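Notes taken during the Thursday session

The instructor put the following on the board and asked us to keep it in front of us for the whole hour. The protein is Acylphosphatase. We were told not to look anything up and to reason only from what is written here. First, the residues (98 in total):
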Amino acid sequence: MADEDLISVDYEIFGRVQGVFFRKYTQAEGKKLGLVGWVQNTPAGTVQGQLQGPRKKVKEMQEWLRSTGSPKSHITKAEFKNEKEVDSLEHSSFNVVK
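Then, after some discussion, the predicted structure tokens were revealed:
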């Protein structure tokens, strides 16, 4: 498991994460790290999405989602599942899904 291996992981973030620009900041942080994927609000009041990129950068983004988020957010829980190695990226950029 090298840091350069490409991985994909799904995530869901709980807490005060809607109406606080969480998706915009998540998109910006993902792009800054060179990741691709998506982020969207859910009807349950959470934010969910998918990250893809080099293992080391995905792990950095997971830590950001777990502990930082947008300035006005309050994260109570971050769940990550379906982590797997991928041969190539399935997304071309990091998008906010409406």
